Amino acid sequence: MPKSKKQAGATRPTMMDVAAAAGVSQATVSLVLSGSKGARLAEATRRRVVDAANALGYRFVRRGPRPMAPEAQSTILFVVDEISADPWMALAFEGARDFALEQGISVTLGVSHGDPEVEASLIASAARQRLVGVLYGTILTREVQLSQAFAGHRTVLVNCHDAERAHSAVLPGDLVGGRVATEHLIAMGRRRIGYINGQHGVEGARDRLKGYRQALASADMSFDPQLVKPGNWEPSAGYNMTRELMALPAPPDAIFCANDMMAVGCYEALKELGLSIPGDVAVIGFDDRDIAQYMHPPLSTLVLPQYEMGRTAAELLIDASGGLPIAPTRIKVECELIVRESTGLAANAVKARRAAE
After folding, report:
1. Backbone torsions φ then ψ of 262, nearest 5 degrees
2. What is the DSSP track for 103-159?
3. Could you give the angle at which helices 174-187 and 203-218 cross, rounded to 10 degrees?
């Protein structure tokens, strides 16, 4: 069964470790180490990632001829509902592929666009290649109802879940992530925290809001609905909702944006108003997109753990194929807090170090 880093004890370096050492996101590390030729990355960035991976002893898993599994089954099919400009499903695929290759099992990718006929065709084709099972992933965290094409095949869901709980599901820990983000702002001395939510009806937005409210309650801070604004994941919402928040009679001293792209708009609005970050208003995002580290100041955020979700899903599937009696389960993968200057902690740490010197 999958083990967390804490449970497993000393573990080999992970892609997240390489990202931290190189000062880039997991998406960038995935693109560099997978040898993606289409990615527009500076050579200096590629070199930094490779050097960090070498220094940490990260195990490279390269594309090319794959070893055959010692058992009869040797292929996993990863079906995604769609491909978008966001890197999330690509990261999940890379995580599943890397773990499976370590077991001598290949992973193939198919895009279904939610079409049952396409899904049936993809699965029928993969079944001719000695199929271990199927991973099914969605761009948005949501409930799904699998088509009949999946019947009879081991299936693990990635970033989605089924109402009947007939299949194991691996999901991001959005609720805990929302709580951690808010608790971090509270720990930094912020007492009036605004929240700009994501798209209405999306599970990730709903759970991050729940986490925000839980953190306030745990700190004995009252929930003020005026401090919660609707968003849509885009910079425009971050900009417009920040202007509304700062126009309140008692404006916030911190803003939690439900994703990094809205934080981009939030920054612009605060700068137009002549407010400093984090001096006047601390800002935290969610997702750890590449842009977060290059914002001024660099944005504190939480990692959307799609790579780890893909690895965990592949491990569940391979364990089940080996005959382990595993009941369907739901696993929430931790969204790690990445602290940068936008919430003040990094700047305070520098001041403390200088004072000690």
Report:
1. -70, -30
2. TT-EEEEEE-TT-HHHHHHHHHHHHTT-EEEEEEEEEEEEE----GGGTTS-EEEEE
3. 40
Query: What's the rounded mean pLDDT across residues 161-183?
Result: 96
Torsion sign across C-alpha atoms 309, 235, 43, 48: negative
Helices (H) and strands (E) in the chain, counts: 12, 12
pLDDT tens-place string over residues 114-159:
899 999 999 999 988 889 999 999 999 999 999 999 998 999 999 9
CA distance 13 to 57: 7
Domain 70-171+305-326 top-level CATH class: alpha beta
Q: What is the C-alpha to C-alpha distance for residues 76 and 100, in angstroms, rounded to an integer?
A: 8
Q: How far apart are CA 237 and CA 235, in angstroms?
A: 5
Residue type, 72: A
Model pTM above 0.85 = no
Percent helix, strand and coil across the chain, each rounded to 5?
Answer: 45, 15, 40
Taken as a whole, the chain contains a residue count of 357
E strands of the chain, at which residues? Answer: 75-80, 106-111, 131-143, 155-161, 168-172, 193-196, 228-229, 254-257, 282-284, 301-302, 330-333, 337-338
Regarding the domain delimited by 1-64, which CATH topology (the fold level of the hierarchy) does it fall under? 434 Repressor (Amino-terminal Domain) (1.10.260)
Q: Which amino acid is at 229?
A: K
Q: Are 238 and 269 in contact (CB under 8 A)?
A: yes
Q: What superfamily does domain 174-303+340-356 belong to in CATH? A: Response regulator (3.40.50.2300)
